[in-house]
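call fold(seq) -> C-alpha cells
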Amino acid sequence: MSAEIWREASTVPSSLPPSARPPEAVRSTLNLTWSGASHALVEPARPADSNKGMYGHVLVVGGARGKSGAPAMASLAALRTGAGLVTAAVVASILPSVAAITPELMTAVLPEGPGGEVTGENLDYDQLLEKKTVLAIGPGLGQHPSTEKFLLDLLDKTSLPAVLDADALNILAQHPEKIDGQTRTMVLTPHPGEMARLAGISTKEVQANRESLARDFATRHHVTLVLKGWRTLVAHPDGAMAINTTGNPGMAKGGSGDILTGIVAAIIAQYSDQVADAVNAAVYLHGLAADIAVREQDEHTLLATDTISHLWKAFRFRPQDPAGYTWLQGLPKHLSTQCTEA
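ret:
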C-alpha cells in the first residue's frame, strides 16, 4: 500500500489550492472504500418516540479474576455508543468492580473456577442469552481450558451476532472450524499478533500483506474482519473492504481494543440490518474520538477511556466540509468547532 494522495475519495473542488486539501490519504489497487463514509449511518436524529428496546441489548462476555478493566471498558463504551441496554457477564469475584463503572450497567454472573477462570459449569445458557441482541465476547476472558469449552459451547448455543476480540480470538485460532459466519453475523477484531495466530503465519507476514490477507480471510470464513493497526482495515464477507484514516499513536495502550469491541457491538445492535456500515462507522468513530481527545492533551497521556468521554463529539462531527470536500485524515482545525454544536 503506497502513501499517495487519493483524490478519488473526496469531492475536491479544482479551485482549491493543494494546501487546503486533505493532507493524507491512501491509494490502493484493491478497490478500498473509506470507512468515514459510513459516519452518515449515525447522523440522523433518533425518533421522538424512542425507547430502549429499539436500540438493542448488548451482552459483554469476559472478565476472569484480575481482568475486570476489560469488560468494564467494553460495557461502558457500548452504553456511550447508544445501545439501549448492556449487560456484563463476568465471574463473581470481579463483579463489584465491573458494576462500579456506571450505574446504568447490568450484570450477570458466570461460573468461576478455582483460579478465577470463567467456566460454563452448571450455567443456564438460555437465561444468559435471553432477550440479548448482540454478543461482545473476549475482553478479559482468559484462555483456561474450562474457558475454552465455555466459549465454544456459547457459540454453539446461539446464532446471535457476535463480536469477538482478545482471548476469544486466541481460542478460536485453535478451532478454525468455528470461525464461520454463514449462519450468523460474526465480527473479528484482531490486532496483527492475533491475526497471525488466526491465519497461522507470522506477524511480519501479516503486516507485509494486510489488504489481501484481510479480504481473503473475510471471504473464506464469511466474517467481517477488523484488522487493527495503522490504517485499520475492515474486510467484509462479500469482498468489500474499507480503510480507516482516523486514530493516532496515543491509542497504543491497553484498553483501546476493548473499547472498540463495545462500540462495534453497540452500533450493530442499533443497525443490525446494515452490518457493513455499522462496523465501518464504529471503527471510524473510535479513531475520531481519540483524535478529538488528543487535541486536548498529549499522545503520551491519552488513556483508552478518554476516547469514551469524547465519543459524543465524534458523533456530532461531520466529515463533509461546507466548502464541498471531505477530510480523510485527522481533524481539521477550522472544522473543530462543529464537534460541539448541537
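Residues 1-25 have pLDDT under 50 and may be disordered.
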